[in-house]
Amino acid sequence: AVHTWPSPKLDALEAQRWDQDDTINGFSSFVQPCTFFIHGNDDESETGRANGPDWIRTAFHDIMATHNSEDGTGGLDASIRFAEEQSRPENAGTGFQNTLDVFIAFTTRHVSLADLIAIGLVTAVENCGGPQIDLRGGRIDAAEPNAPGVPEPQGDLNAHIASFKKQGFTQTEMIGLVACGHSFGGVEHKPFPEIVPELNDPNSTLSVQHFDTTFDFFDNKVATEYIAGTSQNPLLVGANDTTNSDKRIFASDGNKTMASFADSSELFASTCASLFARMLDTVPKDVKLSDVIDPLPVKPSEVQIVLGTNGKLQLSGVVRLFNVTVDDPDRTVHLLIDSHSGETTTTTLTLDRFSSAMGGRVQSPFYAFNQSQDVNHAGVIELDPAQGLEKMRFNINGKVEDQGGVGFKVEDGVVFSETSCITTVGAAATEDDDDDPVPVAGKFDIAVRTGLTPTRVFLEQEIKDSINRTVVKETDVERPAQPVPAGDGAYEIWSIQVKDANTYTIGAEINGGKFSTVDTHSLKELTACTPTKRRVWHKRRTGA
Ligand code: HEM
Asked: Which phi and psi (to 5°) does residue 537 adopt?
């Protein structure tokens, strides 16, 4: 389903899923090319493994390990991040930590590690030749390790049937899931020396024996090579039959399922798409997942409104047009800004950059609200603060896009004011006189629309809690006794002392709803409140 913008959590998940390699995200660069393997360093002498297979196996082990469909416990909840879980024999190998090291950097208050593990599987499969997979969001990171239970290669067929049944999958679905997963990767010598010997193969210096001949790519070769009898899958033709779990599983219905996969690459792809989606939706029973996250055809993002030192509102942002020709010279894109009094300002937007998904099968241009091509030095649209902005609409090739009449609502009630400044500087980082002194204290000015009575205004800081979950720490901004007018009286300034160089967004509770700005602010980006003060301080110090 396509949600209505803005919805910060869904907006963030949608971007993480559909803008995988825009210049800001870069998530899919870890599976591009599909042979890419990071392993915590850049050692190209390590061949045979790839990030994509690690990502897929991580999802499987996090979910299937631990879910119990009878009591609704366990599932995709990032419990694999706990050392206790990773140290279990059923989780042998370095693939889980490698994967999590990449993913943790992408977690935010809106995108949990568990959601990223799901998005990681989707990205690895879709970007490396696989089918489109329905993705839902809203997974919650577990507070503690889950119970063990990942199927191991030495398990017998009945044990494997029982364990997939416990997770909610039939025997036929088990065959499908194992074949879909084992379209990627292989078994590595180091964690499984009894299954795979040292290979002395320059193309697999890590001694990984692959499940099929296209180990970094999704296709039905895992089935065609099995049916043809040419498979080198180490869980199928391994010297020790005890650990040939794929052999027992694939043959368990008289090869019916595997033969159907070998016959039809389309059937294999569509079966894998639905089984992977169901596997990712296996979550603890108290977690409520969103609808399938479909792309918004027209989607604003990075929408920032601040009150400038000149007293004008400064608007910046971009709008993404999903999956259309990136550089269509005939396309016209206009931003319509509707003010509180119903007046409309029109601005022509320019092509800024593009994002892609599904390994480039989807490409989406972004148009900036300004004339700049450089997202880091974006210009702004200046607006009269008395008029303000209520909502945006877009006119694309003469057609107005307004989410079925509701428009794209924006919040200009509580915004950062660029009168914020540094009050105290500390010693320079080094003795070098050229170094700028470090700001140690300053004030953030927050402009609150006159007449609006927010229940609370606060600074928000994203921090990691003791078990690596992203949480938002809130610091209340006191309502001023004597409001200082700004923006020609359209706003009043609330100020707060800040004594660190952390990055903050502004939050507010207005009419029962909670709102956060997208723009982040830190003392580091501000200038001195009284410019001469710093120079005086500097002279005194160098003169001493
Ligand atoms: C009875 C069920 C299964 C058993 C016993 C099993 C066993 C194994 C073993 C022993 C490895 C080698 C790991 C390594 O060397 O690091 C492996 C790799 C892998 N498994 Fe499975 N597996 C099963 C089911 C699945 C399922 C259902 C999926 C996904 C849906 C999956 C995805 C993968 C992937 C992608 C790899 C390659 C990892 C890499 O190359 O980094 N497996 N499996």
From this structure: -60, -40
- Is the C-beta atom of 160 inside 6 A of ligand 1? yes
Res 438: pLDDT: 78
Flag residues of the chain having pLDDT under 70: 22-24, 39-44, 65, 371-378, 428-437, 531-544
Q: Where are the beta strands (DSSP E) in 105-228?
A: 186-188, 208-210
How would you classify the pairing of strands 333-338 and 344-348? antiparallel
Mutate to test the pocket of ligand 1, among 60, 121, 218 (most ligand atoms within 8 A of CB): 60
In the chain the domains, ranked by start, together with CATH numbers, are 8-280 (1.10.520.10), 313-409 (2.60.40), 414-543 (2.60.40)
Ligand 1 neighbour 50 (Cβ under 6 A):
no
Element (H, E) at 534: helix 531-543
Question: ipTM for the complex?
Answer: 0.99
Distance from C-alpha of 46 to C-alpha of 83, rounded to nearest angstrom: 25
Give 61-87 as a DSSP string.
HHHHTT-BTTTTB-SSSSGGGSHHHHT
pLDDT attached to residue 531: 66
Tokens of 233: 């899958």
